[in-house]
TrEMBL record:
This is Bifunctional NAD(P)H-hydrate repair enzyme. Catalyzes the dehydration of the S-form of NAD(P)HX at the expense of ADP, which is converted to AMP. Together with NAD(P)HX epimerase, which catalyzes the epimerization of the S- and R-forms, the enzyme allows the repair of both epimers of NAD(P)HX, a damaged form of NAD(P)H that is a result of enzymatic or heat-dependent hydration. K(+) binds at N63, D123, S159. Its EC number is 4.2.1.136, 5.1.99.6. In the N-terminal section; belongs to the NnrE/AIBP family. Belongs to the NnrE/AIBP family.
Length: 490
């Protein structure tokens, strides 16, 4: 993959516009198809040198054209190849028709394919352009291939996956490998698409980067340091703890203090100059027994908080981990409406009966970060969460606009969205990050970055990335305490 394009994610519509613009610029579109098909054939031979038979499945569009080229190259290379086509190949048009004409193999209708031991399936049925559920005959073949346990090499995207959302449209191949061209698509990174793609390779078929950049909206990208490193605070020799930010984390009652401590330690490790846990008076002793570098301040009710907030150095807060659900949480959030706030867990659930009450508090420049998992998202945005027409990125963006907040829509494919329409898909989180307390650590990291002056969206995105990196350092079997200990500043 071209380094210049490595961060871009193009939707299927944007990639179609790239293809059209490339053709309009005088680039031979069939030459691009030839290179794509040749790359697929080369990948098949490299990955499956011992295949007894390559089974090439050709669809009715340009993805099928790529497959016909691949089949031709495999046959010319002496590999055993059979071909099955969807719909009437005589109705192919343009480059796909030319690719079919250049392939000497006589194909059979798709429904006649019966898997055999030693088969390797090359999937060129639909690619990323599918916008409806797969037909019944395709579903039947997908089921037969899965039952036989055959390896699948997908061209562009496993057929049955939505290239924009990563959703399964009725049924989809589970590929062991996927080869795509020039850039990735959101469906390569979003679940379950990421799992169904297997190992992904991006092959440069020769479309100039300037054409791709001209058609790329840049709205959706992978969450990488390039997306936010430009706003990181410069390191200064002459500084002090308040210049690096003061983060406050609210603690729950005496028997629910651990979550706040993990958030606080994580915020300190992420670079905040100092961190204070604000706890009920009855929980001070429980917290003090486990803390050294983190300070403590007694806060029992909203009146105590209002008095404390006369100190204008207090600008950044985390509320939610272990805090408890209810009116007290809502009152604290109301007091913090003019400050920067990471609202997590119990803090989010406290507004489930009237989410708009929360949203109305945080107008103007975004300063609120919400970190919902699937259930919390549905409680705060029930209509958006239940809209099956929307993918995860679309849902996160709609929520960000409504709440005027940076949204961290958590999961294996965490999406970070901004009210201005930017969205990032995170990919560096290992599976073992799914453990109790992991979200408390994430909230603290984001709070620590907010305290250092990062804007809400960039703090959220960088925090999610740091969270994943810490998990890799901690290794399999980590606990949340170990995860927090492995957080490093940017």
């Amino acid at each position: 993959m071209s380094h210049q394009l490595s961060h871009l994610l193009l939707t299927p519509a944007e990639m179609a516009a790239v293809d059209a613009a490339a053709a309009a610029s005088g680039i031979d579109s069939f030459g691009l198809m030839e290179r794509a098909g040749a790359a697929a054939a080369a990948a098949a031979l490299c990955l499956h040198a011992g295949a007894l038979r390559f089974v090439v499945l050709c669809g009715p569009g340009n993805n099928g054209g790529d497959a016909y080229v691949a089949a031709r190259h495999l046959q010319e290379g002496g590999a055993p190849v059979v071909l099955f086509h969807l719909a009437d190949p005589s109705r192919l048009m343009g480059d796909a028709a030319r690719a079919k004409a250049g392939c000497a193999l006589r194909g059979e209708p798709l429904h006649l394919y019966s898997p055999e031991i030693g088969d390797v399936v090359i999937d060129g049925l639909f690619g990323a352009g599918l916008g409806r559920d797969v037909p019944a005959d395709v579903r039947a073949v997908i089921d037969r291939v899965a039952e036989a346990g055959l390896p699948v090499l997908a061209i562009d995207l496993p057929s049955g996956l939505d290239g924009r959302t990563g959703r399964v449209l009725g049924a989809a191949f589970r590929a062991s490998n996927t080869i795509t061209f020039m850039t990735r698509k959101p469906g390569h990174l979003l679940m379950p698409g990421r799992e169904l793609c297997g190992e992904l390779e991006v092959f440069d078929i020769g479309i100039p980067a300037r054409i791709i950049r001209a058609e790329a909206s840049g709205v959706i990208a992978e969450n990488r340091p390039d997306a936010w490193k430009g706003v990181l605070p410069a390191e200064q020799l002459e500084t002090h703890k308040y210049k690096r930010g003061h983060l406050v984390v609210f603690s729950g009652e005496a028997d629910k203090t651990g979550a706040a401590r993990m958030s606080a330690i994580s915020g300190l490790k992420a670079g905040a100059g100092l961190v204070t846990i604000a706890a009920p008076d009855a929980a001070i002793a429980a917290n003090a027994a486990h803390l050294t570098a983190v300070m403590l301040h007694a806060i029992d009710d909203a009146a105590d908080l209002e008095d404390w907030l006369t100190d204008k150095r207090l600008q950044t807060f985390v509320l939610g981990p272990g805090f408890g659900i209810g009116a007290r949480a809502r009152a604290f959030v109301s007091s913090l409406a003019e400050r920067r706030l990471v609202l997590d867990a119990d803090g989010i659930s406290s507004f489930k009966d009237d989410p708009q009450q929360l949203f109305d508090l945080f107008g103007g420049e975004p300063r609120l970060v919400l970190t919902p998992h699937e259930g919390e998202f549905s409680r705060l945005f029930p209509d958006i969460g239940s809209d099956d027409a929307l993918g995860k990125v679309d849902k996160a963006l709609a929520a960000a606009r409504r709440a005027n907040a940076a949204i961290v829509y958590k999961g294996a494919d965490t999406v970070i969205a901004a009210p201005d329409g930017r969205a990032l898909i995170n990919t560096n989180a290992p599976a073992w990050l799914a453990t109790a307390g992991s979200g408390d650590v994430l909230a603290g990291i984001i709070g620590g970055l907010l305290a250092q002056g990062l804007p809400a969206f960039e703090a959220a995105a960088a925090g999610v990335w740091l969270h994943g990196e810490a998990a890799h350092r901690a290794g399999k079997g980590l606990t949340a305490e170990e995860l927090a200990a492995h957080v490093l500043p940017l």
